[in-house]
Amino acid sequence: MKIIHLSDLHLGKRVNGFSMLEDQRYILLEILRIIDDTEPDAVIVAGDVYDKPVPPAEAVELFDLFLTELASRRLAVFVISGNHDSAERIAFGASIMNKSGVYMSRVYNGTVKPVKLGDRYGDVNFYLLPFIKPSYVKRFSGEENIQDYNDAVKAAVDSMNIDTSQRNVIVSHQFVTGAKTCMSEELSVGGLDNVDAGVYGIFDYAALGHIHGPQCILSNHIRYCGTPLKYSFSEIGHIKSVTVAELGKKGDVFINTVPLKPMRDMQEIKGTYMELTSREFYRKLDTENYFHIILTDENDVTDAAAKLRVIYPNMMKISYDNTRTRAGTVRLRSEDAKRKEPLEILDEFYEFQNGRKMSGSQRRFAENLFEKLREENI
């Protein structure tokens, strides 16, 4: 049985103020082309369909188009909710969609019933486990010893009563201990959301979502497929791809990947303003890409962002790497921070970063902002 494994579409996402919807539409069409070439039996979307629990209408329309295209190919489609999704919105209309071969995860209620598909080796059971927290599972299990995410996922899996003589696939959206992360993922401080890979050991294939870099954990049958697009400059080194998992007879799992080429890539370039605006330099680049530009000029370039966007229209970020910025980072002990007002901390940080104090108008803006935050209890 051949399975296309996707996750973390984050439809509707904005990166550094740029809407990614056009890029997402392009990459979903590329994925459909890959699906037509590889002819899978099933497609999995392992959570974070959307970037927000209440996504913009355009994002919903785009996912509707994608699901419609998949259903027209008479594929089995499995979708679960991730930590960015509303479990209730993903579950909406699930019973009706089942008739079209599109299976959406239900809101977790203590039971996860498998969807069965068959091939020449027998049945394959697909278990759709949406993103869960300890409180979700404790509510239905009655077990008081569920203290962390590992306990929660283990209890959820134990309640599935897996028939290990058959082939079983779980679709899950959690952070597995040992996964390589980047800055664009939302993880709990101190590893509180860690799940041990052994929890998924009973399955022939664990199709995971949540981590943006494609990777296998312990063995190739526990896998993160990663995002189809780069969503931060911490992902520049990622090679985005579609994971193709092929299940043979019991115990046989083969993994292949098909690279994805985005409409616009993400790049970092570094140099002086004069170097980066030289025609000899930028003519070698695709200037339509998304850029993080790092200027090495010792003095700030007046209106640098506006000037650079003439050449690099999709510049997302600009920063400096020079004597001033390399001098070090702000060393403010936590106990010192607790004794100081937020505005005082901001004053010190601004002076350290810029070599001068905030102007009167900047300080008044900060004062008004802090006051507004206090009123809203943020």
Which architecture of the largest domain would the CATH scheme give at its second level? 4-Layer Sandwich
Count up the helices: 12
Stated plainly, the CATH topology of the largest domain is called Purple Acid Phosphatase, chain A, domain 2
**What Rg is obtained from the alpha carbons, in whole angstroms?**
24 Å
Q: Which secondary-structure class do the elements indicate?
A: alpha/beta
Percent in helix: 25-40%
Overall pLDDT, averaged? 90
Overall domain count: 3
- Largest sheet properties: 6 strands, mixed
CATH class of the largest domain: Alpha Beta
Q: How far apart are the termini?
A: 50 Å
Topology readout:
Layout: E1 2-6, E2 14-15, E3 18-19, H1 21-38, E4 42-46, H2 57-72, E5 76-80, H3 87-91, H4 94-98, E6 102-104, E7 115-119, E8 122-128, H5 134-141, H6 149-158, E9 167-173, E10 175-176, E11 194-195, E12 205-209, E13 215-217, E14 219-224, E15 241-247, E16 253-259, E17 266-271, H7 273-276, H8 279-282, E18 290-295, H9 304-311, E19 315-320, H10 334-339, H11 342-354, H12 360-375
Parallel strand pairs: 1-4, 4-5, 5-6, 8-9, 9-12, 10-11, 12-14, 17-18, 18-19
Antiparallel strand pairs: 1-15, 2-3, 7-8, 13-14, 15-16
